[in-house]
Records
---
Amino acid sequence: MNYITFPTAQAAVEKIAQEFVLYSQLDRPVHISLSGGSTPKLLFKTLATPPFNTKVRWENLHFWWGDDRMVVPSDPESNYGEVQKLLFDHIRIPVENIHRIRGEENPDQELARFSAELTACVPNLEFDWIILGMGSDGHTASLFPHQTNFADENVALIAKHPESGQIRISKSAKLIEQAKRITYLVTGSAKAEILKQIKTTPAEQLPYPAARIRAKNGITEWYLDADAAKLL
Ligand SMILES: O=C1O[C@H](COP(=O)(O)O)[C@@H](O)[C@H](O)[C@H]1O
């Protein structure tokens, strides 16, 4: 596995932001999946400010989410709502490039609609880049330890947060693993211990979806800050 440690979280997200510039210069639509939770907020703020806000050719990038919570976009728990507030409100991007999970809808109907949109829009269901986070329990997207079916053939699924019971829609492990590139962005010392376990233990012996999900035919890499990497 490819672990890349940056001195700070800011340095890690600036590397990702530079790659947004490069992807946006490709002469085709590029499909990128964003992570939710607290970690990527620094990335969204960085992308919304110079030089990235104008250097990225936003019209060439299509944005998706690994998961979202079934709440309205104005709810602070909404992964899409946070990106809208921190990034989309500050740049010029065509509305048709934003492929959000509609958290305000009925979960079963939204699962069907979102699955159809994925199938229709993403060539061969192969994302160019999936950026993931990792919870301190080892979950990624809304794929939680002890409740993830890694063989699920569906592109997306309904998940329930094991503690709060919050309902979510998540990409499936199999869909994520079809990506050309997967980057786990993990920062902060609260994730240091679990990262050490992931680095030192064979993935199949661990219950953590973040340890097991990797690009089957592409690149999998971990972008860490020094605090997260301190036990590696
Ligand atoms: O619940 C979630 O958690 C993970 C990690 O979140 P963080 O707050 O520890 O950064 C995130 O990747 C996922 O998208 C989100 O829904």
---
Amino acid sequence: MTIKIGVIGTGAIGREHINRIENILSGGEVKAVTDVNQESAYKAVEDYNLDATVYPDDISLVGDENIDAVFVTSWGPAHEQSVLIAIEAGKYVFCEKPLATNAEGCLRIVEAEQKHGKRLVQVGFMRRYDEGYVQLKDALDNNEIGNPLMIRCSHRNPAVDENYKTNMAVTETLIHEIDALHWLINDNYESVRVDFPKKTKHSHAELQDPQVFTLKTQSGVLIQAEVFVNCKYGYDIQCEVMGEEGIAKLPEVASVVVRKESKVSSNILNDWKIRFMDAYNKELQNFLDSIEKIGEPQGPTSWDGYIAAVTADACLQAQESGEEVDINLQDTPDFYKKETAVWS
Ligand SMILES: NC(=O)C1=CN([C@@H]2O[C@H](COP(=O)(O)OP(=O)(O)OC[C@H]3O[C@@H](n4cnc5c(N)ncnc54)[C@H](O)[C@@H]3O)[C@@H](O)[C@H]2O)C=CC1
Ligand SMILES: O=C1[C@@H](O)[C@H](O)[C@@H](O)[C@H](O)[C@H]1O
């Protein structure tokens, strides 16, 4: 069976995903596209040689009876509406992060999905499919380092443009750590505090860079997460978990080690699209395969989107207040308690 897909938002990641579906993965075909910038939608059809209808908006695209699944790859503030109308129409949804821009929006989606009666939505937290994170999670789940006590991690980008403001360190960047870390250690967050170290000269007036987020979990694990988006030297994701019996660290990206002229060197990537290319491929293949095989997606759920939104809201408050802020999650509904998949 080929799953017929409609893509809402044909910008950077929308195009990346279209390319994946058409040229790399199996079991899906893009049959409809839309973008508020209609030129961009037509260009995607032309560039990827799609046999697809261009719709004027998300409502008309979702109304296409031939579409089985909707990819929401528009700007964050537009996600909630598109996801809700897709659920209403009973379509599967792959939604890029954020699921919605705040906790209330995520809860509206969670309610609509439960009312529908089976899982339809997967959120684009692709790190759960990254081979290094999968290995790290296996080590923790197999109790190789005993109980986790502390985590130190970094999310570093070489540079960002002037549109990237202080709050985006949370909503665009830390959001990936927020999802990956609670999944890694099977724990929930309890509070967060933010510190602003000395600001790099490579930043601009409306961006505090770097930032350090100190999260505590309900079981007492202390997490120090650094976001440094003008680090200059490359795109670098680090994560180290300190346990009672040892330490487990995210593997470095494989790169040849050169010994030359009295130096040892290896390359660091510059681009997140390349760093997580395999993970994006696996998450989308898993989305398509799960729909075909078990009739519902198995990846990160709408509830994971809600957890990320509540935590991100608290991080934003902590940025503003300089105080430690509590993170209060509602109880997980039974609907979302089912084990999510194992991938590698
Ligand atoms: N999982 C990941 O690693 C990544 C996730 N993202 C997320 O994907 C989303 C898109 O990001 P980019 O592609 O980088 O942005 P982009 O700005 O390149 O593309 C967004 C596109 O959506 C269109 N759009 C906006 N509102 C719309 C609406 N109501 N209906 C239809 N089209 C609409 C825009 O015209 C634009 O073409 C964001 O939420 C972003 O956070 C982006 C990059 C990586
Ligand atoms: O979502 C993403 C981008 O928006 C963001 O700019 C990058 O830093 C992230 O690592 C990437 O995964």
